[in-house]
Amino acid sequence: MPYSLHQGDALTVMAALPDQAVDCVITDPPYNSGGRTAAERTSRTARTKYVSGGVRHHLADFDGENKDQRSYGYWLTLNLTESYRLAKPGSPVLIFSDWRQVSTTADALQAAGWTWQGMATWHKPAARPRKGGLRQDSEYIVWGTKGRIAASRNPIYLPGLYSASQPRKDRKHITQKPLAVMRQLVRICPPAGTVLDFCAGSGSTGVAALQEGRDFIGIEMSPHYIGIARGRLETALHQTTDQDDLDLAGPEEH
To answer: Which residues form the DNA methylase N-4/N-6 domain (predicted)?
Structure first.
């Protein structure tokens, strides 16, 4: 099976997986940023934080957005430490972050044993303007490796800037990332390798992995979103299988 999907706490699920089981870690954890006070941080839902007023869609909330910065750094370090154990030597790790949590994310990455290699930018053309200031139209991808970069395993050149808006049509998750970006990012995983996402959400990383010929292990706490992710992965798997069958059949004769 090209993918496996697990519903539950990421630390618990990862603890049951064998050492060096994956070739790459790509994840989009809840950012836990933006709360100016403890009351604001603990009372606001993810929907309140991420969805503009007046938006008509009714995407489900998700948990995990009520940590302060220290707690978030500790939680992320624990999960990155466990994923470090699961990664093969030279494997890359990519972690999405907003500007507020970049330093905490980089600290957690290094505390977990990964070697910090840099940061990429995801530019969102459809981001909201900011009156009197600079437009907040970017999020970031903090990345590193387990030891040195294993360039010989996957001699690919990827950009450091990705530009695509969040999905609007058929959107499944409040913080869903565009497949155009995710399909480029999963190419950092060696061909036919396995990508791990311990905050799988609606499964965009997994869909991109399958579409790019990689295997996928996903972990998601929410029963609601694990169902959506499973449906999307099954669709992507069938589409990929159908395309492979066409490629094997070759051009149609007339």
So the answer is: 22-229
Say which amino acid occupies 234.
Answer: E
CA–CA separation, 225 and 12 (whole Å): 18
* CA distance linking residue 152 with residue 144, whole number of Å: 16
CA distance 107 to 22: 22
249 φ/ψ angles, rounded to the nearest 5 degrees: -70, -25
Predicted confidence (pLDDT) per residue in 137-148, tens digit: 999 999 999 999
Whether residue 233 contacts residue 203, with contact meaning beta carbons closer than 8 Å, is answered with yes
The pTM score is 0.85
Buried b (16+ CB within 10 A) or exposed e, 197-226: bbbbbbbbbbbbbbbbebbbbbbbbbeebb
For the beta carbon of residue 23, count every other beta carbon within 10 angstroms: 24
Dihedral-angle region of residue 213 (phi above 0 means left; psi in -120 to 50 means alpha; beta otherwise): left
